[in-house]
Specification:
TIM Barrel, 2 domains
């Protein structure tokens, strides 16, 4: 699914931005020169679409003009709509997966290569916050299912496959309080040992004082929230099934959402699957990173990304089901 130009309100500016990384995973950012809007701030390379250009064409042109590099392959990352006091912008962000050349500031702009977790050290344009969150997330989100597979199998799979930067949700509604806390403690220990993050599917206040990185809100808990339920030192995720719930997740400043089911699943009997076309429409309308959920495995990862997803959220497939 290619990203192309769209008919939007006349006062909204369409912008292409590229996530360019080096061999160590650092991300390229550029400083805006005078007299550009909000000069002095930092941004991801790119610029405004010209009439008739696709997002990919605009990004290739801008990267050649501004950096002297030839972009040959991209994939969608996230679309962000942001209203500055002076103008409204739609930021179409593509991950550059192949390019030739060495990036230099051909227009005199300063450049920096930063690790995703270090992007907060520079004064980025405010519309880039969801982009930074996307860069800090992996492309797969593992959801535990001990009721089906057993605790031993879950822990064994974590030991074998958990990677630095990984993301795990503990979702064990069948466990009693003692068993749940013990399981969370053990899973969190596995995650800490390899630099992965763990979120708990529980009431927000449960995370306070626990050795976890945040919470995952069910759609019911999301609907009950009026504002972000935890400080920014915690991650907040939400389960969504439609545009209304995605808008709620954005309103409470959630860091990311899970949207589904894309396909029919045993865990959501009777739920009408979205399919990729509807998923892509909803994902494009969300102002935060979105994982595809529902019958997902690693074979769906490429299709999910081209539909605009951060990646896939896996339950059964994560544990060999």
């Amino acid at each position: 699914m290619s990203v192309s130009t769209r008919n939007t309100a006349a006062d909204r500016i369409e912008v292409a931005a590229g996530i360019i990384t080096d061999h160590s995973g650092r991300v390229l950012v550029a400083q805006r020169n005078y007299p550009h809007h909000q000069f002095g701030k930092w941004e991801f390379p790119g610029g405004k679409l010209k009439p008739g250009e696709t997002v990919e064409q605009a990004l290739r042109r801008e990267c050649l003009e501004e950096l002297g590099i030839y972009v040959s392959r991209t994939e969608p990352l996230i679309t962000v709509r942001h209203d500055y006091p002076e103008r409204k912008v739609t930021l179409n962000v593509l991950r550059v997966t192949a390019y030739r050349g060495v990036a230099v500031g051909r227009e005199g702009q300063a450049l920096q290569w930063l690790a995703p977790d270090d992007l907060a050290t520079v004064d980025l344009l405010s519309g880039n916050r969801p982009v930074v969150k996307s860069l800090q997330l992996p492309d797969r989100y593992l959801i535990t299912a001990a009721a089906r597979f057993g605790c031993a199998r879950i822990l064994s799979a974590l030991d074998a496959g958990l990677q630095p930067g990984g993301l795990v949700q503990v979702r064990e509604k069948h466990m009693d309080d003692y068993a749940w806390h013990e399981f969370v403690r053990v899973v969190a220990g596995r995650c800490r040992a390899c630099g992965a993050r763990v979120l708990i599917n529980a009431a927000p206040e449960t995370a306070l004082g626990m050795d976890v990185d945040g919470i995952h809100l069910t759609s019911a808990r999301l609907r009950a929230c009026q504002h972000r339920p935890l400080p920014r030192s915690y991650w907040v995720a939400a389960s969504c099934h439609n545009a209304e719930e995605l808008a709620m997740a954005e309103r409470i400043d959630a860091d990311f959402a899970v949207l589904g089911p894309v396909f029919e699943t045993e865990s959501h009997p009777g739920a009408v699957p979205l399919g990729w076309e509807r998923f892509a429409v909803l994902c494009h309308g969300a102002n935060l990173p979105v994982f595809a959920l529902g019958g997902m495995d690693l074979d769906h990862l490429s299709e999910a990304k081209h539909a605009g997803a951060q990646g896939v959220a896996m339950l059964s497939a994560a544990w060999g089901g």
